[in-house]
Amino acid sequence: GGASAVLAFDLGASSGRALIGELAEEAGGLRTLRVTEIHRFSNRAIHVGDHLHWDTLRLLHEMKQGIRQAFKLGYAPVSLGIDTWGVDFGLLDANGELIGNPYHYRDPQTEGLIDEVASLVGREELFRQGGLQLMAFNTIYQLYAMRKANSPKLDIAKTLLLTPDLLAYLLTGVRVCEFTMATTTQLFHPERRKWNTELMERLGIPPGLFLDPIRPGTAIGPLTPAVQAELGVPPVEVIAVGTHDTESAVAAVPAEDPEFAYLVCGTWSLLGTELPGPHLTPETMEAEFSNEGGVGDTYQLLKNIMGLWILQECKREWDERGAEISFEQLVAEAEASEPFRSLIDPDDSRFYAPGGMNEKVRSYCAETGQAVPRTEGETARCILESLALRYRQALELAEGLTGRSFMALHMVGGGIQNKLLCRMTADALNRPVHAGPVEASAIGNMLLQLIALGRCADLAEARRLVAASFPVETHRPSGDSRRWNDPYERFKKLRGDRP
Ligand code: ADP
Ligand code: LRH
Fold this sequence. Notes:
The structure is a single chain. By secondary structure, this protein is α/β, with parallel strands linked by helices. It contains 19 helices and 21 strands. The strands form six sheets. A seven-stranded mixed β-sheet has the order 17-18-16-15-19-20-21, sandwiched between helices. The relative contact order is 0.13. It binds adenosine-5'-diphosphate and 6-deoxy-beta-L-fructofuranose. The site of adenosine-5'-diphosphate has 17 residues, from helix 12 and helix 13. Adenosine-5'-diphosphate (ADP) binds at residues 12-15, 266-267, 308, 311-312, 327-328, 331, 413-415, 417-418. InterPro entries: ATPase_NBD, FGGY_C, FGGY_N, Rhamnulokinase. Residues 261-452 form the Carbohydrate kinase FGGY C-terminal domain. Residues 6-250 form the Carbohydrate kinase FGGY N-terminal domain. It comes from Cohnella xylanilytica.
């Protein structure tokens, strides 16, 4: 323990966790990062009336428990960092108080708004000026929805804080806007590298809400005296890391080749590659890829894929019916089920909203003239094979856009605990999959703290530290990956011409 520990809070859409990172000197001067999980809590959407919200105050409470626990266990972290899912935000009033409960990005308020905003601004302009795949959850549509609903919250709001900045504010009293999260709003101009105030004005979004972005790796301030007193802890420094979880995860990919391909695999699947700047060609727009600001002056060219959300939701239903089936069991049952019996397009919009997921999978299969999954195992197999095929398509698109050829795929995130999915991906791609680390977002979060504290020079050194510290499991294609070619053709047909 002692003076070198840092604390990372990684909040995903399904769970939040607190992890301690400690730099250790090994024999021969090799440094490694030792990571210990000290607190974990569930996170989910709360239905209130017609809306879906995050339980922000409970998240704050759980973070406080994490800080308390870090000191109770004797780690005495010198700093802490927070990374979360993208796009969501809270609004502060003139007295600095949080206005209402922040919306969950799956709130139905943004339905149909991509087309509406596109008819005002033009699709090409929206992409060129925002850099992102046009997805209904992007902050721009959430704010436009509030404006359309004449939300009084928007009228009294003085400052908008994206989720990690909001949580940091509740702990420090300091308001900042961290760059990587700013780039998930679609209101940040990727070429000018500043807020797109003209676009905000056109849509009735008050530009005054937005603070100038700060670089990942900037100190925010210490815990407030009130928080210190409540928890009985010293003034730990809060550092703005790569506060978008996806960017923290990419920072922790232990790749040697700078032109690597990655898949951040959790609730969402983000497949992409790292570039020095945004890639805003018409082809990129057509392929529906995003340009998200990363740490270390990078831009991430990536595709947002619906991901394990679909399986998570099916499991939630089975659990609620009393089946209480673990992910391990589900994976075993999927493995024992017939291959390629039915496929879905994971990015079909019906899978986006929570609830009724089993029925949605069945109806998708029935409507497309396929066998309908009958068991948990068949359902899981259908979802996992479909995801692996979607990863192949996204990887091929990324190669087409960048002219790069990827010899392998790095997979990180909670989803790699599903080794069946890793093996399926290796087979579908007919390329090796390097899986690890699982807790990439939390580790990337720690790396940015270490850089800010001067204990690690830069992103390249940070990635070498990850490579030296965590095992990576390589899944090689099984040799009969040709079996995946016909299903891939079937899969592409299901998606029609869509990229
Ligand atoms: P997020 O950060 O978006 O909340 P995670 O990166 O924690 O998501 O990944 C959660 C996903 O990981 C779950 O939806 C589940 O599919 C998968 N997962 C978690 N634990 C296991 C496990 N033991 N075996 C297989 N899959 C798992
Ligand atoms: C993954 C993620 C992803 C999207 C979504 C809202 O956790 O951050 O990059 O932005 O959540």
